[in-house]
């Protein structure tokens, strides 16, 4: 597959999501701070079930001497001072003193404040106010959790974006390093590794391996007569044609210039002979859109277990040059295998 170009829609969406997450991650501490401020400003009333006023009504019902409340005053405390203030619990009620604990706006969350209630100069009770940190802590923990989650997702996405681009770039670089840009075939740099792998597999499973090298005949004339661009087109057409007629298990490689190599796996010499003859006929019969026909000369070598790449390629290359010398549009076998065999049209 050739490298993909341009930035995909997925990349763009990912960028938008990452931006949103970053904005949210920045907004959360601001929201957190605002919530804290509201707690400290004394919105504890919203957390209580009873207001001081409601509780004081009950206290007064049990302690009728607190009559002043009905007149807008609870033993020296103005009604407005207790209305809406959160009540937590009645702390104690002893000797005529009723102590109630209420929540109230306080500068510091843990401070406690007690205010005595008087009836005609006589102390009848006290209002004890304290702010609770529990709701603040609970909400802070919740916010911290949300923050951590958002932060985690954000970091994961932030890392994912450059990592995906890096992986794509790595894939593109690997493709360019292993393929010929003109034909899209594998290039000669990968052959060594392929040969190592396939010959090891062949040895292990007692399979045969063959190498074919072929070269366009008089290709210089094509360039000279029709131009270099036309020569390039012929190379691409030839690569496409041959790759459609070799097995999926064969590797077709642009060996260099107008020369190609086939590493044919699971193929003994007899099968390779059939292959090269098939290719020779195929190319000779193909219409490349030129006034002249295009032919190829091929050399084939059946590799023996333990044969190295250079020995096999050298054997196939020498056979191919013998085919050239013998008149082109033909194939020869490598010297090491059988110097006599060759094929060509009569
Ligand atoms: N258009 C094009 N031409 C190439 C490319 N690579 C090599 N060639 C040309 O292939 C030609 C090879 O010429 P020669 O080595 O003389 O071989 P030939 O003309 O094919 O003759 P024989 O191989 O002896 O049949 C040269 O003209 C090179 O410029 C390529 O990528 N594109």
From TrEMBL:
Its EC number is 2.7.7.65. It catalyses: 2 GTP = 3',3'-c-di-GMP + 2 diphosphate. Pfam families: GGDEF. SUPFAM superfamilies: Nucleotide cyclase. It is an enzyme of class 2 (transferase). The chain crosses the membrane at residues 12-33, 141-163. It comes from the Bacteria. This is diguanylate cyclase. It comes from Marichromatium bheemlicum.
């Amino acid at each position: 597959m050739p490298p993909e170009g341009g930035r995909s829609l997925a990349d763009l969406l990912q960028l938008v999501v990452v931006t949103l997450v970053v904005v949210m991650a920045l907004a959360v501490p601001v929201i957190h701070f605002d919530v804290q401020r509201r707690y400290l400003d004394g919105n504890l009333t919203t957390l209580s079930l009873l207001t001081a006023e409601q509780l004081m009504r009950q206290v007064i019902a049990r302690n009728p001497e607190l009559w002043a409340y009905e007149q807008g005053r609870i033993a020296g405390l103005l009604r407005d001072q207790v209305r809406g203030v959160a009540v937590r619990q009645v702390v104690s009620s002893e000797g005529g003193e009723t102590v109630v604990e209420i929540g109230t706006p306080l500068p510091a969350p843990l401070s406690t404040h007690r205010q005595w209630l008087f009836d005609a100069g006589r102390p009848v009770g006290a209002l004890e106010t304290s702010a609770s940190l529990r709701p603040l802590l609970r909400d802070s923990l919740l916010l911290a959790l949300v923050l951590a989650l958002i932060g985690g997702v954000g970091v994961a996405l932030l890392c994912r974006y450059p990592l995906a681009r890096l992986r794509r770039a790595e894939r593109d670089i690997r493709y360019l390093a292993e393929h010929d840009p003109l034909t899209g075939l594998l290039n000669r740099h990968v052959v060594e590794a392929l040969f190592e792998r396939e010959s090891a597999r062949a040895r292990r499973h007692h399979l045969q391996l063959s190498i074919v090298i072929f070269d366009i005949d008089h290709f210089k004339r094509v360039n000279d007569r029709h131009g270099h661009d036309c020569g390039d087109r012929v190379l691409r057409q030839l690569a496409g044609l041959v790759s459609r007629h070799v097995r999926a298990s064969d590797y077709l490689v642009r060996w260099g210039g107008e020369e190609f190599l086939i590493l044919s796996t699971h193929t003994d010499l007899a099968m390779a002979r059939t292959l090269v003859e098939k290719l020779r006929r195929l190319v000779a019969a193909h219409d490349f859109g030129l006034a002249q026909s295009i032919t190829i000369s091929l050399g084939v070598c059946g590799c023996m277990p333990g044969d190295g790449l250079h020995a096999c390629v050298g054997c196939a290359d020498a056979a191919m040059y013998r085919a050239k010398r013998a008149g082109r549009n033909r194939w020869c076998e490598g010297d090491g295998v059988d110097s006599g065999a060759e094929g060509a049209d009569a």
